[in-house]
Fold these 2 entries.
Entry 1:
Amino acid sequence: MTVKRIALLGSTGSIGRSTLAVVAAYPQLFRVVAMAVSSYSDRLLTQIRQFGPEAVAVRDAAGASHLMNQLGDRPIRVLTGDEGVAALAAWPAADLVVSAITGFAGLWPTLQAVRAGKAIALANKECLVAGGQLFMDEVRHHGVSLIPVDSEHNAIFQVLDRQQAVQQLILTASGGPFLGWNKDQLSRVTVEQALRHPTWSMGAKITIDSASLMNKGLEVIEAHWLFGVAAEKIAVVVHPESVVHSMVEYQDGSILAQLGVPDMRTPIAVALAWPERVTQPLCRLDLIQMSRLTFMAPDRATFPCLDLAYQALQTGGVAATVLNAANEVAVSAFLAGKITLATIADIISATLESVPNAASDSFEAVFQADRLARDAAQCCVNHWSK
Ligand SMILES: NC(=O)c1ccc[n+]([C@@H]2O[C@H](COP(=O)([O-])OP(=O)(O)OC[C@H]3O[C@@H](n4cnc5c(N)ncnc54)[C@H](OP(=O)(O)O)[C@@H]3O)[C@@H](O)[C@H]2O)c1
């Protein structure tokens, strides 16, 4: 395998750092040529010193200028603003772009990478939740490969070989830190409790989504667009050990699963190396030590975000864009201590009712729906603030 040159969007985040760990483990296979982040941090400077990219984009202008001062004479291009992040996503020297910016903000730069013909390792699920058909049309039009990094979709990607014979996709969910809790208990959880995920170590936004089960809802929508499977044929089972990452059930009754430790370095290594495989594992699952795997139905009444996502997918148009935007606003408000965890679903539900649905026939329509939904959700936050 020749050295793959990587542009890493979101290098300082949880997926970004796991990606750099994979690159560091296989220097003969991968090289990081470009990195993008939101703001300056010492962590970014350390990453630049270790991986020596040609270009870095820091969205925040003051952060970019601080970085330039820190870099002195180092021959590194520093870009800034949303345009800088988008230009970095299409960086000419990169073969593969790892899309690991969090939230809707990841859509525009990832789209630029697709339009520049780069292979995409996709962690940012919001590209598909908010951009859906339009994003997939661009992927097909530009003939780029799209390899899912999200562990569930990476698992399905590895075991799905005959689409026509699929009975259902089965996404596994850890259940998050509040598995088995009731609505009353949920209304009193603290931000600190919600950020303590039992099996996965992830960024704050996705950790809260995992606690509300919205993460699984977003993943149902993501799976629909990635694999072309209808909502009715995508099931969710709770699997607290987080070892079976997802499954495909075929019409003949066979169920194929992909297993591994709950560590994002494995799906990232799969995505970076695809269609090859790396020859040394970064983490190995000990089945004997695991000994027991459990599966149960999700509690849809206590965690209504899951059904809200199914409903948005079935409604179509920009409903999933609205759902995603309302969720981002509500999660920020929860992290800021303004609303309870249980209020997140109320805000999403109210936003879906108040923003008129429209055809999702252009990126302008998607960006407009995102803006309207953010405004509406912010009004709900103000109304429901503690
Ligand atoms: N974490 C996981 O295990 C996991 C698993 C599956 C899927 N995902 C998905 O992967 C994505 C990233 O998740 P994460 O947990 O890694 O998030 P995270 O830890 O919050 O990291 C986000 C990264 O994106 C950068 N960023 C944010 N907004 C940006 C912008 N507008 N322009 C440029 N850079 C920006 C941040 O830079 P700063 O550091 O400067 O803020 C940071 O490097 C999400 O879509 C998530 O759903 C994550």
Note: The chain has three domains: 4-149, 151-305, 316-386.
Entry 2:
Amino acid sequence: MNKFLALFFFFTILLQSCDDGDIIITTFNFDEAELKSCGTLGNYVFYKVNPEALESLSLKLGVTDSLYRTAETKNYVLNGTTNFVNYRTYDGELGTTYFCSSIPPTSPNVTVDYLAAAGTAEFVTTFIFEDNDLVPEEEEAAGDTDGDGLPNIYDFDDDGDNVPTIRELDTENADGDDNPFTNPKDTDGDGIPDYLDDDDDGDDVLTRDEDENGNLDPMDDVTDTSVGPDYLNPAVAISHEITEYRLHTYKIFKSVKITLKNLVLENGEETITQETLIMGNIENVETKDKTKKPVF
Ligand SMILES: [Ca+2]
Ligand SMILES: [Ca+2]
Ligand SMILES: [Ca+2]
Ligand SMILES: [Ca+2]
């Protein structure tokens, strides 16, 4: 088929589609509206309301997935029954609980209702980790310094010496700038800051092992009070072999970006198609507290 013939056919199909009542629009006016969510396993609802135009865009997912369990991209097929998108207009303002009440509200009335019978909802979930160790995420040393399986960005004891990182920075504010991360302590002066040094006093006994009472806390084992804990005292070098890491805690802040793709919204004879429609982001859609004891 030559190009002109192909073009002719293309326009014919397009015109026929228009005759069937297709409406092809490129934008929805929800840019200012905040994406919100409610519901739970088996009945998730995401929605945006544009109060000025009395219109809403909503996505319902009847899936039993834990949506944000992993930081990844998931695609849900819109089948029109358990998973679907609605674009609706109303004859009045929507109350704040319109989408989330267990009993469907009787007002306002829906004046126009499009249902997505095809397309996918793409969920991109991203994680931000917080180990509360006062080392900014962008300043955390790359990788997993102590090899305990928890990357430094969410390891609250980066060198695995059972002294939390937060206790190994500039804890006494020696530089006077009220920022514990600048000029972190380097007790033995070996150029490796204490929070990344597993032998802080350089006495060849690991900090972790200078734990006489064996409670996984080297900070409370003090032979000479005028110097401080044994792990910071090179004159005391007795190894009490410790073979456990202390319990670690961290937080995960999860965010999601939802994009509707190849959306076909239908209302009787009328169809709205959208190749890509960004529903929006929800920051901190889920926050998880994690507790983990790394395997030694
Ligand atoms: Ca860390
Ligand atoms: Ca250390
Ligand atoms: Ca101890
Ligand atoms: Ca020591």
Note: The pocket of calcium ion (ligand 3) is lined by residues 211, 213, 215, 217-218, 220-221 (CB under 6 Å).
